[in-house]
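Example with several molecule types.
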Amino acid sequence: MSDPVSKEVPTQRTERDPDLPPNFVEDMVREQVAQGRHGGRVVTRFPPEPNGYLHIGHAKSICLNFGLAQKFDGQCNLRFDDTNPETEDADYVHAIKKDIQWLGFDWGKNEFYASDYFQKLYELAVQMIKDGKAYVDSRTTEEIRDTRGDYYKPGVEAPDRGRSVEENLALFEQMKGGTLPDGSHVLRAKGDMASTDVKMRDPVMYRIRHAHHHRTGDTWCIYPLYDWAHGQSDYIEKVTHSICSLEFVNHRPLYEWFLDQIGAPPGDRPEQTEFAKLNFTYTVLSKRRLLELVKLKHVEGWDDPRMPTLSGLRRRGVTPEALRTLCDRVGVSTRDSVVDISLLEHAIREDLNATSPRVMAVLRPLKVTLQNFPENEVIEFDAPFDPEKPEGPSRKIPLSRVLYIEQEDFMETPPKKFFRLAPGQEVRLRYACIIKCIEVKKAADGSIEELVCEWDPASRGGTPADGRKIKGTLHWVSATHAVDATVRLYDRLFLAENPLKDKDTYLEHLNPNSVEVLSGCKLEPSLAEAKAGQRVQFERLGYFCEDASTTAAARVWNRTITLKDTWAKVAGKE
RNA sequence: ACGGGAGUAGUCGAGCAGUCAAGACACGCGGCUUUGACCCGCGAAGCGAAGGUGCGAGUCCUUCCUCCCGUACCA
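Resulting C-alpha cells for the full complex:
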C-alpha cells in the first residue's frame, strides 16, 4: 500500500493517522507494543478456508491484518485453514492468493497451511491423551449431541470418558490407522459437561473422514476441528494477535483453554480479538450464499461483475485502491453493522474520477445528420483525456456529416430545465461545435429515426463566436469513425435492502434487471486500441472497464458504476 | 428461561466526566461548470429508556428495553 509518510518518517509509523478514524484493535496493539508485550513483536494472520472465493467482507480483514503488520513493522501470515477436505480445493487456494495480491498485499514467504501442522497437531493431541485431558468417544453423532444438554440444562458425561490412557492411545492410533469407518469415533477434550458455556462441554478435537485432501492426499483420515486446529496453528506460527470476527467471541474461552492445556506460556501466546465484519445493504456476503448463486446459475460465476467477490469487483472495474480506502473509512468496531452501499459506491467513484481518462461513447445511438455540413469532409478536434488538464495528453476526435447522440438526449416535447436537444433548440457537441435541431424524421410506427440538424461553423471547439450561452453539452460519436461494441450495464444484484431478512426466500429479491446487455454501441475511435482491463469514463455516462472476454472483432465493456445523476433525480420527481 | 456480545443522526463512526457531541456517506438548498460529473458553500438530523452518584455524565453505578451470537464429527 502506498504510505509515503511511513517511508519518509519511519519512526512515526506507529502513530495514529490523523486522516483516518482510529480503531480499537490498532490502539490495543499500539499500547501492547509500547509495553513490550510479545517482545514488541506483531504477528497477525489472515486465515481463509479454501472453500470459496474471497469477497469484499474479507477485504476488511485483509486490510486490518496486513495493515497492522505494516504499521508495526510486523508480519502477516497467509494461512489456509484447510482442515475440512470435503469442501476445500486447490483451485480456491489459487484464486484467494490472486485476490489478496490484487488488493495490494504481500505475505512474502509466510504462506502456510493448517495442514502443514497435521503431524504436530496430532502429537499435541497424543500428549493431551497422555495427560488424561482427552478421550475417544465411540458413540454416534446423535448420541453425543443428545447428551450435550442445552442452554438451560447441563450435559451428561460420556460413558467412554473414563477410558484408560492406554485404551485411548490405542483407539486414537486406530482412528488414525484407517481401519475405522467415518463417524465411528471422535477424540474429545475433557472439558466440563456442566459448564454454562456449551462450547466447553467436552469439545470434539478430531473426527474420522476418509477423504482426499488437496495437499496431504490420503495421508490422513482423521482431521482436526476448528477450535483445536486454529488456536494451536496460531501458537505454532507464534502469532501474537489472532483477529477474527464477532461470531467467534463465543470461542475465545475455548481458544484460551486449549492453549492452557498444551502448556502455552501465558505471557507468550496468541491473543484473540474480535471485530465486526463488513456487511452492505443490498448485498449478500456469505460464502454459502454466494456458492448458491453460482451453482444455481443466477450469476455466471464467482467472478461475475455483479458478485461482491474480489474477483467480481475486479472484473467489474473496481480498483483495489477504492476498496482499501473504503476499509479505512468504515473503521473497526465491535458493533454489528451494515454499511450503506453508497459508501462503497462513493469510494469507487472517487478513485475512478481521479484516475480514469475521459472518452466518449454512445450507448443507445440516435442518428443525427448535419444538413449544412459538407459531404465527405472530416474535421478533427483535439480533446484532452483529462479535461482538468487541457494541456495534458489528448486525442483527435473526428466530426463528419453523420453522427450519433444518445437517444435520451433528445425529446420532442421537453419538460422544463431539459438542457438537451429538442426541436428548434441548440446544444453543444462536446469539444466540437453547436448544433440546432431543425427536423425530426420518424419511422412508420412513429418512432424517431433521425434528427436533422444545422451546425454553427463559427462555434468550432464548442465556443460560439457571439458568446451566446449554451447550457447543454452532449457526448457524441461520428458515425463513420465509430467503433462498435457491446456494453453491459450492471445494477445491484438484489432489490431488497436486506436480502437475507428471510433467509429462505432471499432469492426472490434478486434483481431481474441486474444486467442489461447493449449491442451496437458506438465508441469513439481512440478506443479501438484499448486493452482488456482498461478503465475509462464515458463522459456523462459512467465509468467503464473493458471486459476480459473482449477481442478486436467483438469489443465488450462493463459498466463499473454510473456517474451521479442529478437530472435523473429531478426528472424522476415529476 | 441460560451464557456471551452490542446499543451515539438514515448508514458507518470518533468521543474514555468539563468548549455549541468530530468526520465520512446519504439527504436537502445554493454556487461553479464545454461531463446535470467533479469541485465549493450552506442546512436538517443523534447519545435505547428510567433512575442514581458528581459542581459537572454518551462517558461512572443500578434497573429495564431492544438487537446479535451460542446446543455442527463446518470454519
